[in-house]
Amino acid sequence: MDKRRAILIILDSMGTGFLSDAANYGDEGSDTLGHIQSWFKAHQGETSEKYSDLGDGKVPEFKIPQLAKLGLGNIEGALNGEFKVDNPQGAFGKLRELSKGKDTITGHWEICGIETPTPFKTYPDGFPEEFIKVFEEKIGTEVLGNYPESGTVIIDKLGPEHEATGKPIVYTSSDSVFQIAANTAVIPLERLYEICEIARELLQGEWACGRVIARPYIINEKGERERTSDRHDYAVSPTEETLLDKVKAAGKTVYCVGKIKDIFNNCGVTDSVHTDDNMDGVNKTLEAMDKVEEGFIFTNLVDFDSKYGHRRDPEGYGRAIMEFDERLPEIKAAMRPGDILIITADHGNDPTWTGFDHTREHIPAVFYGEPIKPGTEFKTGNTFANIGATIQDYLGVEKLSIGESMLYEIKKYAVGIPHLSKWRI
User: Fold this and answer.
1) Which of 30, 67, 254, 295 has its CA 20 to 30 A from that of 9?
2) 76's torsion region: left (phi>0), alpha (psi -120 to 50) or beta?
3) DSSP H helical ranges for 75-202
């Protein structure tokens, strides 16, 4: 088989319409992508409240010409039926989540072949007092907070006390997360990481938790508390081998950009790189495409979720999508003849929704590359793992536990794939 690469980019939280069981999660009616587009349509030309320093200070028209060309607007129900094009360059469709939950780990793991039938344990009333006492003893100080809250809100609420006392701020959300925030002028970054590692060791068994997250912040020149890009996630290890392990076992590169390494607890990773923000993630994906000869490049662009979804900022989210859209020609230009590019999400996070948590939605998926049959709409998949199964099939590595490959459905022809017997021509 000749050398092949799959480049998978997760636009973190860019869901495209609520799932049939969304009411069980309080998310019936949510639609991250569609509601962002509607928000811009309703507010276009108005004075921008949060982004008055950009452009002419007005809310711009929502434009995503590159994503539209790939077929994003042709997905059934996506973007309120707008942004359809006559001749999409890619294959497109959407997928349902098989696993229970709507968090980062569940979504990424399912894409790569793991079903999570029981949701990760969550702590809607904060973590048990018994755990907090043990944790405080281990780190040598009391903590502040211990309740569900938006990260930016809680550092504004509790930041002054933290900075005066040195007590770290802990909080959670509807996800299975234990987040620890600290001003790095009060608790140095390395000590914050050490505290997170202690928490990770403790959060097992009856205190099980999917992720511990370090949330460092600074006080910027404006006197505002601002989270830095030194976030670090400490996740549990996958419960079985994923697509990453299969690709690595086949002797191919698994190059992870952004928080992918953390989500999979470094399992199946051969190379990884930290990113500062979405555009740095695009830059480092391009660098990976320049040097990886064969295998899997796996990128997460987290700003959509962390900076805009959780903060319920539809304008910021939409601007970030448009900014990514402007970079797509660079990514396409860096592709080689044997490459396939997949752009998708891992869950929803509707910035017009109530609260500050993820929303249970379909994820969109577009496939592009010289081997892909343009204009193909694949049927709605019953699991996110159909994406991983398609990549597994294309790279010719060992089959995943769940997921059905869509390769026969979306590929032009069968050059150099001897392990497949039937192809559309």
Assistant:
1) 30
2) beta
3) 104-111, 129-139, 151-165, 189-202
| Total residue length of the chain | 425
Q: What's the token pair of residue 121? A: 């344990």
295: left (phi over 0), alpha (psi -120 to 50) or beta: left
* Amino acid of residue 64: I
For residue 338, the 8-state DSSP code is: T
CA distance 105 to 343: 18
Q: Taking the model in full, what pTM does it have?
A: 0.90
For residue 53, the one-letter residue type is D
For residues 335 and 372, what is the distance between their CA atoms, to the nearest angstrom? 13
Question: Any residues with CB less than 8 A from the CB of 361 and at least 6 apart, and which?
Answer: 15, 16, 17, 18, 19, 22, 27, 30, 31, 32, 102, 347, 348, 350
Contacts of 107 (CB under 8 A, 6+ apart): 97, 99, 345, 346, 347, 363, 384
Residue written as tokens 């299969």?
246
Q: Say how far apart CA 146 and CA 148 lie, in whole Å.
A: 7
- In a 13 Å sphere around the CA of 286, the CA atoms on its Cβ side amount to 15
Rg of the chain on CA atoms, in Å: 21
Looking at residue 119, its pLDDT comes to 86
Task: Give me the pLDDT at residue 425, please.
Answer: 30
Q: How far apart are CA 150 and CA 381, in angstroms?
A: 32
Considering Cα of 216, then 313, then 14, then 9, what sign does the dihedral take?
A: negative
Span 286-314, pLDDT tens digits: 999 999 999 999 999 999 999 999 999 99
